[in-house]
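User: Please predict the structure of the protein below. I'd like the answer in structure-token form so I can feed it into my own downstream comparison script.

Assistant: Understood. Taking the following sequence of 115 residues as input:
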Amino acid sequence: MKKDATLLKIRNYRNKYAAHPIIYTREERSQKSEFENPYYGEVSELISAASSVIIDLEIAALGYTYDYNKMKEISMVAPYRFYSGVSYSSDLADQILARGPQHQQIADDTDIEDL
């Protein structure tokens, strides 16, 4: 397999930051220099290529596949829906603070409706 520079950057980033808390990866020590971090477009290309392989394998093994594009769409919309429904009330914060330090962790002990 050809060692693509983009794949090496992504693998090095994964090894250094996601999988292992290390200062220098094996690749960096062998090349005596640090790798550039991958940029968003490079990661997207790799995910797209990997997804098409997974889809082909699922169809071959199972006879069907999941709609990964729909799953991606849902994952992009879900945080927006959640945060658009969350609101902050300064009155509630004032009530909690007025009760004193023993009540500042009220969310752990009391249902918010009890306020």
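That's the full token string. The chain has a mean pLDDT of 76.
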